[in-house]
Design brief:
The chain has 2 helices and 4 strands. The chain is α+β, with helices and mostly antiparallel strands. The protein has one domain: Glycoprotein, Type 4 Pilin (2-Layer Sandwich). The chain has a 4-stranded antiparallel sheet with strand order 1-2-3-4. A hairpin with a 7-residue loop joins strand 1 and strand 2. The radius of gyration is 35 Å and the shape is rod-shaped.
């Protein structure tokens, strides 16, 4: 018998080692996992968009409430001196319109125009109320809690 071991099947070098085979297999699984994660992120993003739109509109309405908040002191000062509610000629109202009667009803409104929601926000100043009042045509889901209860600090 000859000592030529080159023909023996155990002496042959495999074309692909076990490590190389395992790495190729893991690469395929990793690609599938990445695709699944991308799909899950897409689904979660599509589910969150309506909530983000509501948040966006509510932040715009919050800005309007801040504008009404800046009006509180001038209205009170004017009312204490003149004993009537100020109109647009009496104090600077900006985008806000006066809609009440002069003596007792210090009501003001602003038109809200957003791509998502269009409506009117009505705000009243008085001894018992400082906040949103009936006449507001913006849906309740967009209004802050202070407008839903009718009180604004």
């Amino acid at each position: 018998m000859s000592k030529d071991n080159s023909l023996h099947c155990l002496n042959k070098q495999p074309s692909v080692t076990a490590t190389q085979y395992r790495n190729k297999r893991l690469l395929g699984i990793t690609l599938i996992e990445v695709l699944i994660v991308v799909v899950i992120i897409g689904i979660l993003a599509s589910m969150s968009m309506p909530y983000y739109r509501i948040y966006y509109v509510r932040s715009d309405i919050g800005d309007l409430l801040e504008t009404f908040g800046h009006l509180k002191t001038p209205v009170l000062e004017f009312f204490n001196v003149e004993q009537r509610c100020p109109k647009g000629d009496d104090i600077s109202l900006g985008i806000i319109q006066w809609v009440g009667n002069e003596n007792t009803d210090c009501k003001y409104k602003v038109e809200f125009d957003n791509p998502e929601v269009t409506g009117t926000l009505v705000f009243q100043y008085g001894p018992d109320i400082w906040g949103c009042v009936p006449g507001t045509t913006i849906p309740a889901k967009y209004l802050p809690k202070s407008c839903k209860t009718g009180a604004y600090p």
